[in-house]
Write a structure and sequence with these properties.
The protein has 161 residues and is of the alpha+beta class. It has 4 helices and 7 strands.
Length: 161
């Protein structure tokens, strides 16, 4: 991920993101994925219910059962994938802090846009980005993944004069 003046970072999953992930089409897709994963894992074991008399057939069954088992485990692993969190952009040229959210189909929408000069606080402390509006209300608090992200955000933040 390259860090320019327009720095983008992913946050953790919020309660609003859970509503997107638990949408009806998301639940049906999740159930279908779980069913297919279970079917592949069970069929990997079911191959051994039928006897094979020669060594070549046993090798083929061993290869097929390993492939089916791995395919089922890959499908189960995909069930743990979380919906992407909001994306924060700091634009020092326009002096704005923008928060974008993604819907279930991956389309981004602008959730909020704050003028940096109107913010009372914009800071990075202990791997957390915090922003408060003029009345002191916390408008953004998100964890950062690494110290590199924190330093990239600090370099993108405008200097107070």
């Amino acid at each position: 991920m390259t860090h320019a003046l327009d720095a983008r970072f992913q946050s953790t999953r919020t309660a609003e993101d859970s509503a997107v992930a638990d949408a009806p089409e998301g639940a049906a897709r999740r159930a279908l994925t779980a069913f297919a994963g279970a079917a592949l894992c069970m069929s990997a074991g079911g191959l051994w219910l039928m006897p094979a008399e020669d060594a070549a057939m046993q090798l083929i069954k061993l290869f097929a059962s390993v492939v089916l088992l791995l395919g089922g485990l890959i499908l189960f692993n995909g069930l743990n994938r979380e919906a992407p969190g909001p994306e924060v952009q700091i634009d020092p040229v326009k002096r704005q802090l923008r928060v974008y959210e993604y819907d279930a189909k991956g389309r981004s929408t602008l959730k909020t846009c704050h003028d940096i000069d109107a913010l009372q606080e914009l800071s990075v402390n202990r791997r957390k980005l915090r922003a408060r509006d003029a009345s002191g209300v916390l408008v953004l608090e998100m964890p950062l993944g690494s110290d590199e992200e924190a330093s990239a955000i600090r370099s993108a933040m405008p200097r107070s004069s």
